[in-house]
Amino acid sequence: MAEIHVTPLGAGQDVGRSCIIASIGSKNIMLDCGMHMGYNDERRFPDFSYIVDGNLTDHIDCVIISHFHLDHCGALPFMTEMVGYNGPIYMTHPTKAIAPILLEDMRKVAVERKGETNFFTSAMIKDCMKKVIAVNLHQVVQVDNEIEIKAYYAGHVLGAAMFHIKVGTQSLVYTGDYNMTPDRHLGAAWIDRCRPDLLISESTYATTIRDSKRCRERDFLKKVHECVNNGGKVLIPVFALGRAQELCILLETYWERMDLKVPIYFAAGLTEKANSYYKMFISWTNQKIKKTFVRRNMFEFKHIKPFDKSYIDNPGPMVVFATPGMLHAGLSLTIFKKWAPFEQNMLIMPGYCVQGTVGAQVLGGAKKIEIDRQTVEVKLSVEYMSFSAHADAKGIMQLIQYCQPKNVLLVHGEGKKMDFLKNQIQTELGIDCFMPANGETAVIKTALPVHAVIDQGLLMKCKQKYEMNPPDPKRPCLVHGVLVVKDDVLTLMDSQKAADELGLPKQELILSCPVPLPDDSQPATALAKISNKVQKDLVNWEVVTRRDDSFCVQSVDVSLRQKDQSAKFEILVKWLYEDDELGNYILKMVKSVLEE
Asked: Which among 3, 81, 104, 202 is annotated as catalytic?
């Protein structure tokens, strides 16, 4: 048995700092390289010394980044430029374009505003991105003579991708973050039925089944409208791209329909950047936006204007989208500190908040929060409305059933919730499931495939049999043959041909099953009814009927016989093992006719 070893350096029974080391074949692959939003010390980045002290290039064969969110790519410049890694890094074209902008924004907040040291510079971000190789969806990329990768659409955010990775005969799929439900600007995640040895899936909402999207949207619009009607201010913390555009489209449409004049603002500069990227990568959006793009760009908003810090103290109602999405730093935190003490105001959290962030504390019901050595009273109303672009429990199960992996490993979720989903996967789907914590290694055993050539005559024989049944794309084609080693090649042959080639007599295994006749039935009449039923149902098969109404189909023989020298009769069904599927089918038919 071969093995795949998986060690999370981050996102093991935790959300944030996604960084997973997968050892598959003789290769070590890093899946994502994120930072933790809940920490400002050394715990912010993964502990790369776990892999090796010093340069990582000799130990990591390649790095794959699933999307541009900082909890998946935030530690990349730190690893490449400060720890030391010069190997290949793969991500999609939108991720390569957007990631450096978010990394630079994060660097400014950490270094220029908070005065942190031991942080990467702007030059390091540029040098890091020079190592990146951009990939297209469904493009098969040969990393070296053993590693092959292929990206699939993941929904979630612009450019997010799942990756199918093959090393020799072993394979795994890494989902990153994905969404199985299409929304107003992105499509649903999709992947081939690739049957990998291992599926590594996020599990942020492992125990949640979300309600109707339309109900959530209606509730969101109602809450915002009520707040501004009462003179309140609404703060919606978002990340620059993703949910921000989703909610902007929703509010823009509603404001237009209701003819509302209350101002809506978006953090200055980010709207323009977002628009330019959505124009550039329009092929990554959903079908509706692609269709209307020529006539009207859905991301050019009439009611949503750029926000200036001077507007924070403006009187009257307003709605503000501000970054970042978890209230852990930046403009959203600045606005929150100003607006939190006033009851008429409202905070709407549209996505998941990592433990340790101000957002998580507020959602936990905290009424007093210490921020930058100041105590902030929380009097504004707090609403959590999940517009998160992560798959819920139903979506995760859906992906597993579609992808059909042999094993599943859960990351990017809370321990207790992951444990619940793990049990559900094992019980309902019968698939082994793993959930290692950070620093723990899960060992997944994989079967080595046996490569064999199938004899053309046997293939044609199976094809003819298969086509005799009604078309069914889900029905597997079972092949019966003999495995022969010929000229150092494994060949699957028809049993008669194998016996002839080897000069051996053919031995046949015959299976039989007697079915007792009910006491009140006439033996000859019962057999005739069975014969008629088989001829009616198996129209494409040759049914050979004898004078006594006994009959055969292929090697399946159905006849009448007296039971143990008594006056009672029974139907005897016999067949060769190679016709086992047909034999069992006719046996079921015999039993159903006798039970009528």
From this structure: 202
